[in-house]
């Protein structure tokens, strides 16, 4: 007798879609059966011919706890995530206070977040450097990296551009040192790539201009984060991978010129991986002019031809993961009335429509196979962040994670109804087709038909890389 049987599903893997029934026992996949096989199970879920994914991993999400719970905490962020079909997310070490930079902070953070996560979660450890006007207590955590590695963080995250005193920017010396320290562990270091000097100088010049109109300010913001900042920072950290042999991951690649740098490095045999986000694949800088503050993020959205070209690099595997980069804010931090583009929070409220938006773009707009979703939003992140063996595929003994998705079901993002703490989203009013109807983590339903199950609060487990 199995605990759970999911029947009448079309299972989606990176290679193919096939009909099979999934039996789950003790939270793990216990059997994959031919359709119609008679077996006993305590609970049966009928997938009704819909698509079934072996989970969705969001490799890049900021849930803001501890420190900025007024923007988001693990409870609100993770309930929105499971409604969107996410079964595992990897939380960023910022925007937090304190940022996750040593064992003491890890213990404190885990004490808080493990109590109320709906979703299984991994953690990015912080990689902070010597830049910025920050107190010494939060600078340079090179001596703490091995501790964090032993605590099972999935990867380390560093910022190459000005980022404020809570998460001091890394210089190239810090990058090099971190890669040297972490190479023996085969650990992954991910970077927000925008080159410090260019951003600093161009922002300073742009902000000093007086009397600019709203649109002129937006133009100046976009220009001070242009592709050259991203390109140079990406080249720099790749060179540090070249120098040390350490594994580097380029976060949220926004532009094909940057993706080409990644591709060249991969062809050279360097240990480089990279991700992009739905907003770089579906939106352009025109959208920033249209929406203003709610659409501010860095790197910013690019021109239409760049957005279209970026797809080539997802399809050829250069950009092997797609993450949400959910970076929530309080409503007033995204308010066009009181904040111009410079003062607005930089980051998007995106987690609750992460899978629906990607599915609509991939399947309905681009006419591509849902197998691409399984690849870039589950299998590849599991492989890169070390969860494969437990997550990322329909394999016996892996966690019984299941996302049932109705490919034709229509959805509309209405910001007032978001389960996140903040309610201003630039995706308000977006519509599409294809949305999850059931999210199951380790054999247990955590969300159904657009609603999270309250009793799953605190069910989410900490997931660590399998060595
Ligand atoms: Zn981010």
From TrEMBL:
Single GO molecular-function term? allantoinase activity
UniProt key word Zinc? yes
**GO annotation, cellular component aspect:** cytoplasm
Membrane spanning residue stretches: none
This protein's UniProt keywords: Hydrolase, Metal-binding, Zinc
Q: Which domain of life is it from?
A: Bacteria
The cofactors required by this protein are: Zn(2+)
Question: What's a Pfam family in this record?
Answer: Amidohydro_1
Q: Where is the Amidohydrolase-related domain?
A: 51-446
Q: Which PANTHER family match?
A: ALLANTOINASE (PTHR43668:SF2)
State how it assembles. Homotetramer.
Family stated for the protein in its record: Belongs to the metallo-dependent hydrolases superfamily. Allantoinase family.
Please state what the protein is called. Answer: allantoinase
What is the organism lineage in this UniProt record?
Bacteria, Bacillati, Bacillota, Clostridia, Peptostreptococcales
């Amino acid at each position: 007798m199995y605990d759970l049987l999911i029947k009448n599903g079309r299972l989606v893997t990176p290679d193919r879609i096939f009909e099979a029934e999934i039996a789950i026992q003790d939270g793990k996949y216990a059997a994959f059966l031919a359709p119609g096989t008679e077996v006993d199970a305590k609970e049966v879920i009928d997938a009704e011919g819909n698509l079934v994914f072996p989970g969705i991993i969001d490799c890049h999400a900021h849930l803001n706890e501890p420190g900025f719970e007024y923007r988001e905490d693990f409870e609100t962020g993770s309930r929105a995530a499971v409604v969107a079909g996410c079964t595992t997310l990897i939380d960023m070490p910022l925007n937090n206070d304190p940022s996750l930079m040593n064992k003491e902070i890890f213990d404190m953070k885990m004490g808080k977040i493990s109590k109320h996560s709906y979703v299984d979660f991994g953690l990015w450890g912080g990689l902070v450097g010597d830049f910025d006007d920050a107190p010494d207590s939060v600078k340079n955590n090179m001596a703490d990296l091995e501790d964090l590695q032993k605590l099972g963080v999935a990867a380390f995250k560093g910022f190459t551009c000005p980022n404020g005193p809570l998460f001091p920017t890394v210089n190239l010396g810090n990058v090099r040192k971190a890669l040297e320290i972490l190479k023996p562990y085969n650990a992954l270091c991910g970077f927000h790539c925008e080159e410090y000097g260019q951003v600093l100088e161009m922002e300073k010049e742009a902000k000093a201009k007086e009397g600019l109109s709203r649109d002129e300010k937006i133009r100046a913001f976009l220009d001070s984060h242009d592709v050259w900042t991203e390109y140079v920072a990406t080249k720099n950290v790749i060179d540090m991978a070249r120098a040390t042999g350490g594994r580097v991951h380029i976060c949220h690649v926004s532009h094909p010129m940057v993706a080409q740098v990644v591709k060249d490095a991969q062809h050279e045999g360097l240990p480089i991986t990279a991700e992009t986000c739905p907003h770089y694949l579906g939106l352009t800088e025109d959208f920033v002019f249209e929406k203003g503050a709610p659409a501010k993020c860095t790197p910013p959205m690019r021109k239409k031809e760049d957005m279209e070209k970026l797809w080539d690099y997802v399809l050829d595997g250069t950009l092997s993961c797609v993450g949400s980069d959910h970076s929530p804010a309080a409503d007033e931090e995204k308010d066009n009335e009181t904040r111009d583009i410079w003062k607005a929070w930089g980051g998007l409220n995106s987690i609750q429509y992460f899978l629906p938006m990607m599915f609509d773009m991939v399947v309905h707009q681009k006419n591509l196979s849902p197998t691409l979703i399984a690849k870039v939003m589950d299998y590849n992140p599991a492989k890169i962040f070390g969860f494969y063996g437990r997550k990322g595929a329909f394999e016996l003994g892996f966690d019984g994670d299941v996302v049932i998705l109705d490919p034709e079901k229509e959805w509309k993002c209405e910001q007032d109804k978001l389960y996140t703490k903040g309610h201003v989203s630039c995706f308000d009013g977006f519509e599409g087709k294809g949305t999850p109807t059931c999210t199951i983590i380790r054999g247990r339903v955590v969300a159904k038909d657009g609603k999270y199950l309250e009793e799953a609060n605190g069910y989410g487990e900490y997931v660590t890389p399998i060595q």
